Amino acid sequence: MSPQVFELAPLTQTSMLSFIVLLLGLAGILLMLWLKKMPKIAKSASLGILLVMMGGFSWVFYQSSHAELVLTDTGLTLDVPFYKVQLSRADLLVTEARIVDLQQEVGLTPSFKANGIGMPGFQLGWFNLQGKGRSFLAITDKSQLVLIPTTKGYDLLLTVPRGTELIAQLQK
Asked: Which of 11, 58, 98, 135 is a good FRET partner for 42, with 20 to 30 A between their CA atoms?
């Protein structure tokens, strides 16, 4: 089987607005710090940290439209901003993979962010779920998610527009 690429769902209007508001807020804080009288070292450090944060969030905003999942004979690679998850086929519990709706399955709802980005309309990274331990999320739409359990002690919960096709290819 040749590698099959499944793009993750693009950002929704809500998530785009969240990123824009965040970036504008950081720009406003940057401007306030620039105009505020304070020691030169403190000002430089503060401005540097804010510029790095703005750059990081801008990069995530841009790269999230290029996030993809690559499925091969030997494994699965999930390439999203700041993270790259690689699993062998043996690590995937493909018979348990399915489409889920978080409004119907409350136990899979993210409850605590362990390492990631969580904002309205966008969740990316490692989260604890309400009823089922740890999971890696790449979510922009909570109604049509692909759940892929693994033998590694965590699940993948992803927004994949061609989710049914992904599951069929996983189970081949």
From this structure: 58
